[in-house]
Design a protein that fits this description.
Layout (H helix, E strand, L loop, with lengths): L2 H13 L3 H11 L5 E6 L2 E15 L2 E13 L8 H15 L4 E4 L5 H7 L36 H10 L8 H9 L1
Parallel strand pairs: 3-4
Antiparallel strand pairs: 1-2, 2-3
Helix pairs in contact: 2-6
Length: 179
């Protein structure tokens, strides 16, 4: 079985996403530049995606990668594979010129796990729709940019079923809208 097929099966088994969503995600992001994995005699053991981003911090535009979909086959867990894969991925991304790497823990229990690899929490997410008048001094240095359109149905779906989802392109928006 191909690594791609194994990756889709591991994703489905781990995250319980619909096959259609997984197929569409892979259509968008499965490339040698974004998919990182380990295997044992042809069997996929651990995987993650590192999707490219451009982060704007004040006057600076950073080339960043968003690490997502980190998962390890049940038979290979508790062996440090995910940690080593994250470290290897970070090193490869650094060699390719990326300025930053970030991730979003799927739930609070994973925050401590990722801290072991040097990640720091930037805060706990809060769902909601905000306006500039809602901004406080806590938001100093950030700018709220108005969306061209707001899809309340999609927002509610993501807020309830896909915590910590980040939409960063029209293609990704379509992926989540169709899932």
């Amino acid at each position: 079985m191909s690594i791609e097929r194994q990756a889709k099966e591991l994703w489905h088994k781990t995250f319980k996403d619909k096959v259609k969503f997984i197929d569409e995600f892979f259509d968008l992001y499965y490339t040698p530049d974004t998919f990182f994995h380990t295997s044992d005699k042809g069997k996929l053991t651990c995987m993650l995606f590192a999707t490219p981003y451009r982060l704007s911090l004040g006057e600076n535009i950073l080339s960043a990668a968003y690490i997502c979909s980190v998962c390890t086959d049940e038979q290979y867990r508790s062996r440090g594979m995910a940690g080593r894969l994250i470290a290897r991925t970070e090193e490869e991304l650094k060699e390719k010129g990326f300025d930053a790497v970030f991730l979003m823990a799927a739930d609070e229990s994973l925050v401590e796990y990722y801290k072991r690899f040097g990640y720091r929490s930037c805060g706990i997410e809060q769902s909601g729709v905000y306006d500039k008048k809602d901004m406080t001094s806590d938001c100093k240095g950030f700018e709220l940019i108005q969306s061209k359109q707001f899809d309340m149905e999609l927002f509610n779906k993501l807020a309830i079923h896909r915590r910590n989802t980040t939409i960063h392109s029209e293609k990704t928006l379509a992926l989540y809208r169709n899932s």
